[in-house]
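Morning run. Coffee first, then this:
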Amino acid sequence: MSEQILVVDDEAAVRRILRSVLEDAGYRVVAVATGEEAVRLERMTGPDLIVLDLGLPEMSGLDVCRAIRSHSQVPILILSLRTAEKDKVIALDLGADDYITKPFGIDELLARVRALLRRAKGDPLAAHPLCFGPLTVDCHGNTATLHGKRLPLTRTELQILCTLAQHPGRVLTHAMIMHRVWGHATDQELQALRFHIKQLRRKIESNPAQPRFIITEIGIGYRFAEPDPPEEP
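And here it is:
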């Protein structure tokens, strides 16, 4: 049976578009207009993924995200306006998995949906080295190689690289990375994070000014490249 997606948006036109696009792609869709309906139906139907607008009336998208994360790890894809960067950061810190900005392209939306559903199923090779083209990251072995040559990474650089590489394609906020690496998030750690990202790019990117692996999400955090697909047996 195909995956079920719960769409939450107070604009009827957006709900119609999302339903049409997602059903054409083979998904089952339930669409609601309010946060209260979303929380109720999430508990009743157990969707495989939620597409959630932040700008909901009464119960906001942030409140919906908070309520759902209190009991479920279902993937949440946030819909937001380009100007709502602060709310994007808050949503991601609350546990949302990714976001897409209105207006959005159909191809980008479907790519984000596929990526979230794929990650939600779990990766049986999660304990194995992750391959990203010429870059291999072995978080269990505490090593990383580029074109087969071991990279001279500091302990902090390796921690940051593993934090990003273990969540490929997902936006991690500055605070999420800082808490993982240093245990807290202050302006001092933010400056340190930016410095280490710059150093990492010098070591792993062929052109640090146009990074392939560590992508900046302006004002929010970083997104790491998707890994290579597994080879056919």
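The two ends are 25 Å apart (CA to CA). Good start to the day.
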